[in-house]
Write a structure and sequence with these properties.
The chain is of the alpha/beta class and 351 residues long. The protein contains ten helices and 15 strands. α5 crosses α6, α8 crosses α9 and α9 packs parallel to α10. The chain binds S-adenosylmethionine. The site of S-adenosylmethionine has 20 residues, from β15.
């Protein structure tokens, strides 16, 4: 094609090439990571302060008590949402004992900075091929820590992994603990799913009532098995390509609504795609979050900045470094760098 039509056509092609250029998983693409590092505003040990004075992002190790204390300052957070790397991913297979000792350290640091009455949620997986670690070991370890166990939640994934000879693994586990006696906002516990079960009668104060009459809402409670939350994948607006363990905003928002109030401070030492920070921004809370990796700190900050600018929740069909890395070619030493779509941005094992 020639003339004006031709250049419009080329511009469109360029637009779609850029838009169809999501990042591959950053944990398996060291060369790409190196390219992104110079564009990250934080180095190890630095803390980003939100110009609006609400949030903070620290580039730090979750078990560095001094750095965490510097991040939190004089605040008294009422909620911690922690989504640590699971054993295999975190340490190229450290022993389970080492992993649990490491977990104990960040749990204690979390306890030290939380308010007298506060909640702790921990996302953690169970490897069914290896003694259900680290979830089982973590639960046992927590029995000797000063948090009270409250609930063991399960979020159902739409896609899972499995063989023809086992139940397909479609769950993500979430543990809920409390320190002191924090509140719980029951309204957050209701889903959008209408109640359809009728005919469950019960006598209340001498009156026989049907279950729909008894309920506070026409929709069902979420309970501790969440079936109404879509797993993040590349077609969703909230998708952040490059991230491999992104939690759905709806799940984080449910936790925040249930266990915090407006203007409260929420902490999260494992920011990654910044879902906790973004949910806090949306729900008028403050978030002090961290990641050991400057690239994930940068993604976390950019995601929130983009939301403030445009109202968008992520980079469906694009990525956070579109300006700096508008395209990237496969490099022989780094086979994961493919300019193709990542089919799904969820962790492959049990995250
Ligand atoms: C499972 S992801 C968190 C996902 C996050 N909840 C989300 O929705 O995007 C774990 C993150 O922890 C970070 N991380 C690993 N070890 C860390 C450490 N010692 N201190 C702080 N962050 C760490 C990793 O870089 C990774 O981004």
């Amino acid at each position: 094609m020639t003339g004006r039509g031709g250049s419009v056509c080329k511009a469109l092609v360029r637009y779609f090439i850029m838009k169809n250029n999501p990042l591959p998983r950053l944990d398996t693409s060291p060369t790409l990571r190196e390219r992104l590092l110079p564009h990250c505003r934080l180095k190890a040990g630095e803390i980003w302060q939100d110009p609006q004075g609400k949030h903070r992002v620290g580039c730090l190790d979750a078990i560095d008590a001094k750095m965490v204390a510097a991040l939190v300052g004089a605040a008294t957070p009422t909620l911690a949402i922690q989504d640590p790397p699971y054993n295999l991913i975190a340490f190229e297979r450290r022993s389970i004992d080492e992993y649990i000792e490491w977990s104990r350290q960040w749990v204690r640091i979390t306890h030290a900075v939380l308010a007298k009455n506060a909640s702790l949620y921990v996302w953690l997986g169970a490897d069914q091929n290896d003694g259900f670690q680290p979830l089982a070991d973590f639960m046992v370890m927590m029995r000797t820590e000063p948090f009270a166990p409250r609930s063991f939640l399960t979020m159902r994934n739409q896609r899972g992994y499995g063989t023809q000879k086992n139940w397909m693994a479609v769950r993500q586990e979430l543990l809920y603990y409390t320190k002191g006696n924090p509140g719980f906002n029951i309204e957050a516990e209701y889903t959008d799913i209408p109640k359809i079960l009728r005919g469950y009668y019960k006598e209340v104060n001498g009156l026989v009532t049907e279950n729909l009459e008894r309920g506070k809402s026409n929709t069902i409670r979420a309970g501790n098995v969440w079936v109404d939350i879509q797993q993040v994948f590349y077609r969703m607006e909230e998708n952040v390509s490059g991230c491999y363990a992104q939690k759905p905003l709806k799940s984080v928002e449910r936790i925040i609504r249930a266990s915090s109030n407006k203007n409260d401070v929420i902490v999260d030492w494992f920011a990654h795609s910044g879902s906790t920070l973004l949910a806090a921004e949306i729900l008028d809370r403050r978030c002090f979050t961290a990641d050991i990796d400057p690239v994930f700190c940068e993604i976390t900050i950019r995601r929130m900045e983009q939301y403030r600018r445009t109202g968008r929740l992520g980079w469906q069909n694009g990525h956070p470094f579109e300006k700096e890395v508008p395209e990237f070619l496969q490099e022989s030493s780094d086979k994961q760098i493919l300019p193709s779509r990542t089919p799904i941005s969820q962790p492959t094992l049990f995250g």
